[in-house]
Amino acid sequence: MTETALDDAYRLLHEAEITLDGRPVGVLAAVDPRWRRDNYRQCFVRDFVPAALVHLANGSTDIVRNFLDTVIEARGLARDMAEHQVQPGVMPASFWVAEDSDGSQRLRADFGDRAIGRVAPVDAMMWWTILLCAYVRHTGDAELARTPRYQQSLRMILTLCLQGSFEIFPTLLVPEGAFMIDRRMGVDGHPLEIQALFYATLECAHTLCEPADDEDRALLERAARRQSALRSYVRSYYWLDLPRLDQIHRFTDEDFDDAQTNIFNIHPHSVPLWLSDWVPDDSGYLAGNVGPALIDYRFFAQGNLLSILFGLASDDQAHRILNLFEARWDDLIGAVPLKICFPALDDGEWKAITGADPKNRPWSYHNGGNWPVLLWPFVAAALKSGRRELADRAVESAHKRVPQDKWPEYYDGRHGRLTGHRAHFNQVWSATALILAHQMLDDPSILQLLPGHSA
Ligand code: GLC
Fold first, then answer.
1. Residue of 31, 41, 47, 373 best suited for mutating to test ligand 1, as the one with most atoms within 8 Å of CB
2. How far does residue 316's CA lie from ligand 1's centre (Å)?
3. Distance of alpha carbon 418 from alpha carbon 409, whole angstroms
4. pLDDT band for position 34 (50/70/90)?
5. By mean pLDDT, which of 195-199, 257-261, 270-274, 292-296 is the weakest?
6. Closest Cα to residue 248, out of 286, 229, 276?
7. Which of 159, 274, 373, 392 is the most exposed place for a label (fewest CB within 10 A)?
8. Cβ contacts of residue 72 below 8 Å, gap of 6+?
């Protein structure tokens, strides 16, 4: 039964392959014959990540290398976009291969200039860097990263991430919808997922960049300092557990000057009433976002899991986050692993925060839907923290629904029991996440391809 499901997942992975001039360069987001939206016929950088790790684990390195090359090539297309400002270093959210009438192929890319809502794909350059690191670790082909095109890309990414801004904190400030949640969901500012990806990017770029002069050396020093400051900052100010909630509950506000505790002027009544009863004593998690008078108390799965995986969370925090998953299994894993964020914005908030986006109604899609793709970072984080039993349990429940339901993109409902209202079927990262979860359970050394793990 497991084999049939995995065979089917591999069938989908192969069917989804995109070629350019005869070379495989990526995969479509979905192979759904009903094709609701053209953009699912593109290769999204973030969607390709689990496919790339599956390929590396199987020793098929060519497609990953071609993908890395193609993204750099697509980046060059940004120069022709007169109307939009695409900063050097920004990688496209997605690319596709257009056929001209004479049958010749042309690479096209979306930098947010075509995306629904025109959101900025901040995470693409980060995932690209993390994947380059994984490729180099797996193949030992350090030469690829040393080529001028790659060095230039890495330098541009670091320069862009570290450029001066008005900010005084080490976290990275981004606009709305800059990552997997690529619609209005109140995730602008300093969302956790971006901070985890930023942290890993600084580590990878630091390992792969070869300084050519003093300017490069200064850039790398700044990267190292920022990475260390980011780690302490997130570990202290994003962390939420009962003692911290108790402290916030009794915060005095309007502190200034050298005030040590309530530096963001968090108002005690911002703590949702249900939260202190929901977080067990031995658990905790990283908040969704932190800023002036703001703690977003929602639990965002991908941000927490990537923080564990990349070592942004401490070992103790990692352990407690997994305790929370275990204690609140129905809320955070549900019928089909796993919930993208918890809880959903309720009806009133939904209207104000999402702009009444019908796709993001409470307990649907990004607003508390369940996403099979999140299985792979969950399994990876559980294995890294020595909690294999949790990984096994999640994989088992994914098997009960996802293959039979034809690899939906997401599920709806408080416990994720309904197939997503507007979900695509044959969503490729739903299938590759299951393959990758099995590969990691069979051989946890695959984790060493990722930052946060010694090679
Ligand atoms: C949706 C998701 C995004 C994903 C894309 C393609 O827009 O929000 O994260 O990359 O679909 O699957």
1. 47
2. 32
3. 12
4. confident
5. 257-261
6. 276
7. 274
8. 149, 150, 153
pLDDT value for 2: 64
Task: Give the chain's length.
Answer: 455
Mutating to test ligand 1, I would choose from 122, 182, 365 the residue with most ligand atoms within 8 A of its C-beta, which is 182
Dihedral sign (CA 10, 337, 372, 439): negative
pLDDT at 40 exceeding the cut of 80: yes
Structure tokens at 356: 């009444």
Between the CA of 60 and the centroid of ligand 1 the distance, in Å, is 25
Separation CA 13–CA 51 (nearest Å): 8
The predicted model scores a pTM of: 0.97
In DSSP terms, which residues pair with 348 in a beta bridge? Answer: none
The helix (H) or strand (E) run that includes residue 388 is helix 388-401
Nearest atom in ligand 1 to 39's CA:
6
- Continuous H helices in 209-241: 214-237
In the reported structure, the alpha carbon of residue 182 is separated from the centroid of ligand 1 by a whole-number distance in angstroms of: 7
Q: Measured in angstroms, how far is the CA atom of residue 180 from the centroid of ligand 1?
A: 6
Q: Which residues contact ligand 1 via a Cβ below 6 A?
A: 29, 44, 46-47, 180, 182
Distance CA(34)–CA(293), nearest Å, equals 45
Taking the C-alpha atoms of 54, 322, 346 and 362 in order, what is their torsion angle to the nearest 10 degrees? 30
CA of residue 72 to ligand 1 center, whole Å: 21
pLDDT-derived band of residue 259, with 50, 70 and 90 as boundaries? low
Q: Is 246 exposed, middle or buried (0-12, 13-18, 19+ CB in 10 A)?
A: exposed
Choose one of 37, 46, 432 to mutate for the ligand 1 pocket test, by most ligand atoms within 8 angstroms of C-beta. Answer: 46
Band of the pLDDT at 18, cuts 50, 70, 90?
very high
Q: Which residues contact 299 (CB under 8 A, 6 or more apart)?
A: 285, 288, 324, 332, 339, 341, 342
